[in-house]
Amino acid sequence: MKTRHLLHNILITLVMSLSLFSSFSHSTETVTLQLKWKHQFQFAGYYAAREKGFYQKAGLDVVIKEARQGVDPVEEVTSGNAEYGVGTSELILNHANGDPVVVLAVIFQHSPLGIAVSKNSELTTLLDIANSPIMIELNSAELLAYLKLEGLDKSALNIINHTFNTDDLVSGKVKAMSVYVTDEPFILNQKRHQYILFEPRLGGIDFYGDNLFTTKNEIKSHPERVEAFRQATLKGWRYAMENPEEIIQLIYQRYSQRHSIDHLRFEASQMRRLMQPELVEPGYMHQGRWKHIIKTYQSQGLLDMTYQLDNFIYSPVSEIDLDEYRPWFASAIVFIICLIFLGIFVYSLFRKLLAEEVKLQSIVDNSPSALIVSDNNGIIKSWNHQAEIIFGWQSSEVIGASAYSLLLPPEKIAEVKNFVESSFNDKRPTTTRQWNLNKNNERILCEWKNILVNDKTSSETYIISTAVDITKQKLLEEKLKVRAYTDPLTGLNNRSVFYLKLNHALKQAKRNNNKLGLLFIDLDKFKDINDGYGHESGDIVLKSIAERLIKVCRDSDVIARIGGDEFVVLLYDVNGRDAVQNISIKVLSELIQPIELDDHNTIVINSSIGASIYPEHGKQAEVLLKTADLAMYKVKQGSQKNPYIPPAEA
């Protein structure tokens, strides 16, 4: 009975899989891709796929359509003006509102959207932009969610039409504007305009960016075309990120000279940080990240709490509605299933014992996951080929052994055994993640699914378990997490994690009545090093500064790089001004030591240090940072001695 049930499920899956290979007519087809903005390196992968012939080899003639100001890519695609488009994570909101959009691939692992605020304005925190004129572009719900998380509801914002002209920020016409971190910062830097860039990740909102999407109707009507377009596009993105200079020249010569070569190079370098192509394949997306985006929207009241992801994420099998696509398919499946059951029944009449053994072994051996059958005491009865690959033991080595003793660290055996027994007493299937041991005594992380099967013919109970090795997936997730919170050049904390740790430290200090110190460090004339010796030498200097800060500071202190040549140090549990002053002098003395750039060049770089103390100079993170920053500028301007701690606030 148990074998028949398992074979029944395998055969249904096999028939459905085979149906996907039915022949379709092939010819060169013209389709349109609607971009979300004008031609620039932001869309490099699509140009590469077209110009390197990847689309043509897939039988597609792709028209890449540049966006105009005010054009909504979602509306263009859903109205039939284009088959494919590039959109933000706001696609979820479109889907929730009934638009038949389906996301095919994620290009940016982190959203490029941010909010630029002029540094020389009176604004120092996001709360200060309330009632001030600001520009927020269309399809930027994640920015509104970020602002709401920071205490700014949309009703408190004075949003005006976005001109996409940075002169409006430079001139003071607006106090803040939404920008792409891959684009407008280059222009602002060229204009030597000082600004503060707020990214949603600072508030824990980490969305995908530039998502390739289509419609349910396109997938239903042209499933092969959709998959061909998707694969050719991702191949184009891989090529573009491996050969950025070639694609930069291609864009400039064939598509647009709106951006200079240097501007395009800036885009390419910033996109590498957002895409992380060394760690993540272009197009990769995880359902868990989409669920995080949904929860963020729901928590901000932008999405109904009952919303589900159904039919939003592309899947070559699940997105095809076979009943609608082929009306006869359901009847054919029922007929085939009846024939299969009849065949199984007749076959079992003649060769019961042999048939049961052969069918069970066939299912076990051909499963794509490790498939292990054991009795209710955990004694292994069957062990398939994939189990041999994952765990290292051959079937002949494990049959009759205890799965608990074989696969679990000794300290985990009792805990897992109790969990399994409790679950089966409730007669429910279980899904767990568990660290296991392989033959080499290495720990691997596996995802397990277990069901309990009662064999009525023999009155025996069996546990059927499938296992998938997800160790590499877990390591990848951990690497992505480290990348999200670490400065890639120096290995120090980045701006995002520093703000989190500073706010946490302030709460602890308030609770324990402790004092904190904050050092703001800026390297003097650092630009001269980049200009005179090159950016590689500049990188050596930054790494050396980071190493020296680690050396001179305590293990408990938090060190971060928050800008190009700006560093901050959070000092826990300091006694007062004298302690902060002594540490500042110690840091200054260490940083001024010569730095060897190469065999022929050694330089000495000066630093300007300003400091603030909690609660002497304030109780909020923004106030303490601003105080230390202003103190540092007074040192840099020569009006105060280095290092400088300003007097306490009255």
Summarize the entry for a quick read.
With about 650 residues, this protein is α+β, with helices and mostly antiparallel strands. It contains 26 helices and 21 strands. Mean pLDDT is about 85; it is low at about 1-25 and about 315-325.
Can you tell me about this structure?
With 650 residues, this protein is of the alpha+beta class. It has four domains: 27-109 and 208-299, D-Maltodextrin-Binding Protein, domain 2 (3-Layer(aba) Sandwich), CATH 3.40.190.10; 113-203, D-Maltodextrin-Binding Protein, domain 2 (3-Layer(aba) Sandwich), CATH 3.40.190.10; 367-473, PAS domain (Beta-Lactamase, 2-Layer Sandwich); 486-636, Reverse transcriptase/Diguanylate cyclase domain (Alpha-Beta Plaits), CATH 3.30.70.270. It has 26 helices and 21 strands. The protein has a five-stranded mixed sheet with strand order 2-1-3-10-4. The radius of gyration is 30 Å and the shape is globular. Mean pLDDT is 85; it is low at 1-26 and 317-325.
